[in-house]
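Troubleshooting: if your tokenizer reports a length mismatch, compare your output against this known-good record of 104 residues.
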Amino acid sequence: MSPRKNRRAVPGRPPQGGGSWAQDTEEGPDGDWIVRAVAGMNATKAYRCPGCDQEIPRGVAHVVAWPADGRGDADDRRHWHRPCWQARDRRAPRVQRSRNAPRY
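Known-good structure output:
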């Protein structure tokens, strides 16, 4: 007889032993997005976060988001730090200026 597994099902998390990924559709001022959480142990590559322009190192949990309009393919997916994704509507666009450029 095998031992009993006392594991609760956590909402929004994929079932143990494979299965589908946990992903949600989020509505925002910039449109609808499909958002998927990536656990730290599944993050095998380093990515650049578009929110803060910093690297997301291997092994760090983050989210992957792409437009939900049906046109999203692998080129449209972006890997974000979780706080950067949650604050994307409060951030100003990152504009690179030269050293002596005027700030308007």
